[in-house]
Amino acid sequence: MIANSAFLAAMIVLLLLFYVMGAVDFLAPYKHLIVPYYLWPIVSAIVIVFVHVFALSYLLARTLFLKDTGRKLAHVEKQLQTADTIARELSDRLAGEE
Fold first, then answer.
1. Which is nearest to 9 in space by CA: 57, 45, 47?
2. Are the beta carbons of 5 and 57 closer than 8 angstroms?
């Protein structure tokens, strides 16, 4: 889930960068003046945007894909506690821990 969120965040930030670079193409002749003074603030802003987009996509993925996880795990645990379970080793291990 972290890898998917990072990939999505990277793609969104890349699209935003392409859009912004297209919008400020009139500054291209002055790049030799802009880059030495503003490289680190620009990189910092890009990293901050990436972190925020990553956090948002991770939160969205957790909300959408891990819905009702507790209920599903309770159902699996209830199945493992029965006598005629498919996963006999896991049932035996759970019985031995109690």
1. 57
2. yes
Of 64, 51, 65, 43, which Cα lies nearest the Cα of 10? 51
- At residue 61's C-alpha, the angle toward residues 58 and 63, to 5°, is 110
The first and second tokens of residue 34, run together, are 């802009």
Q: Count CB neighbours of 9 within 10 A.
A: 20
6-43: pLDDT as tens digits: 999 999 999 999 999 999 999 999 999 999 999 999 99
3 state SS of 57: helix
- Other Cβ atoms closer than 10 A to 54: 19
For the chain, domain boundaries: 1-67, 68-98
Local structure of residue 27 (DSSP, 8 states): G
CA distance 81 to 57: 37
